[in-house]
Amino acid sequence: MFEAPSIVFAAAGMAVFAAALLPKLLRNAPLSMPMVFLAAGILAFTFIPGLPAPDPLQYGEFTTHVTEVCVIISLMGAGLALDRPVGRREWSTTWRMLGIAMPVCIVALTLLGLWALGLGLGAALLVAAALAPTDPVLASEVQVGEPADDEHETERGEDEIRFGLTSEAGLNDGLAFPFVYLAIAISLSGSAPSEWFWPWFLTDVLWRIGMGLLVGWLAGKALSQLFFSARDSIRLSNHSEGFVALAATFLAYGVTEMLEGYGFIAVFVCAVTIRAAERTHGFHRVMHAYVEQLERLMTVVILVLLGGAIARGLLAGIGWAEVLVALAFLLLVRPLAGWTGLARGKTGPRERIAIAFFGIRGIGSLYYLAYALSKGDFGAQAEELWAFIGLVVGMSIVLHGATTAPVMNRLDRLRERKAVQQHGDEGKAPKTPI
Fold first, then answer.
1. What's the rounded Cα separation, in Å, for the pair 123 and 369?
2. Percent of all residues in the chain with a pLDDT value above 70, rounded to a whole number
3. Burial category of 169 from C-beta neighbours within 10 Å (exposed 0-12, middle 13-18, buried 19 and up)
4. 183: closest CA among 208, 170, 200, 207?
5. Top-confidence residue, 93 or 22
6. Does residue 425 carry a pLDDT above 70?
7. pLDDT per residue over 95-107, tens digit each?
8. Residue 22 maps to a domain
9. Does residue 38 lie within any of the structural domains?
10. What is the pLDDT of residue 5?
11. Mind listing the pLDDT tens digit for each residue in 143-174?
């Protein structure tokens, strides 16, 4: 008989090849790479003997750090990919999703947690904060592609759906963290606002967000000089070393976390700042390609382990109430919040529906939950929280994975048809809404 280690090595090799091939093979299919690897994890941990159960509670520290690294790598890739300069009007879709849709999701899901799931205030708020952000990792299939290195391509800009989801995913992970910290504070000190409000507002909102923005911008400016403006012998853009994107990621994140800021914000702001320094330089594609490949490998590992956790009983305590709340959040709360946030914006009705619907939940949610459980006191509800978060993430992977390719391909065809009608054969990516 084959021994478990040899099976694991062979399976790992197959998984890496699959990670390289599946995005191309599934481009037009109602199936996504996350769906495949989640299913692979379920099958592997069901039928391969001797594999230890990947229990996120038992291996809480590992879960926290592996998801943390995956998210920050994804944030660097998202920031480097955005062609559009930052601005109030240019990023109006982003500001609307962050300022309106995300708070609505947090409030609505907190209330559902209290009333429908019977959670305490701290636990309900933690669920809401963990699930409110669009995931920068699993949302990659509805995000912008590689950076443009041509001035004409950059001026045409990304389509509003992909741009809106990418920029939202880049910033909302960091902005969800204040509510994660609030849930931790409530779990430790009770629900009396006098005990937690001012320390939370001054430290976890003002200081941490401010430091994330400041350090991310400073790191991006400093690294831009090293990448594009240093003398030829040390100018990194001359050497096409894509792994320096990883150095930039860890540097921005580590310095910000040492200063008690939000490292997620810093990484994304750092990436956007580097991109702005030389917007059409080909080095951005080199760095983005490296980050994207590393992100894909880490995503495979995490999804297989999540599938294994599901196979070994992660969802054992799930009942009809949890299923109905999960469906309500994915099919009603997030779409309605997104539609409301984008009302009277520059998006057309089809774009508005797509952005509102494709709020994919994923690895970021797993990180927030693991982090909060390591810092707060949620008692016996920890298993219940993992079960519900795992349920929502799994349902999101299936629901959004099955609909992404058909919907986005249909919208792309409509956009190209409209471009041809308006501008002739030269128009391929109009900025007009659809």
1. 10
2. 88
3. buried
4. 200
5. 93
6. no
7. 999 999 999 999 9
8. no
9. no
10. 64
11. 777 786 665 555 455 788 999 999 999 999 87
Residue at 266 is within a domain = yes
Neighbouring C-beta atoms of residue 398, cutoff 10 Å: 16
Contact predicate 314/386, CB 8 Å: yes
HSE toward the beta carbon, residue 432, CA cutoff 13 A? 13
The pLDDT tens digits for 37-72 are: 999 999 989 988 778 899 999 999 999 999 999 999
CATH number of the domain encompassing residue 105 = 1.20.1530.20
| 225 SS3 class | helix
Query: Residue 231 is encoded by which pair of tokens?
Result: 């003398």
Contact 382, 193 (CB under 8 A): no
The better pLDDT of the pair 277, 3 is held by 277
Amino acid code (one letter) for 351: E
Computed over every residue of the chain, the mean pLDDT equals 87
Residue 4 to residue 142: CA distance in whole angstroms:
37
Number of domains in the chain: 1
3-state secondary structure 135-178: CCCHHHHHCCCCCCCCHHHHHHCCCHHHHHHHHHHHHHHHHHHH
Host domain of residue 135: 54-399+410-426
Any domain includes 183? yes
What is the b/e burial string over 37-62, where b = at least 16 CB atoms within 10 angstroms of the residue's CB? bbbbbbebbeeeeebeebbbeebbee
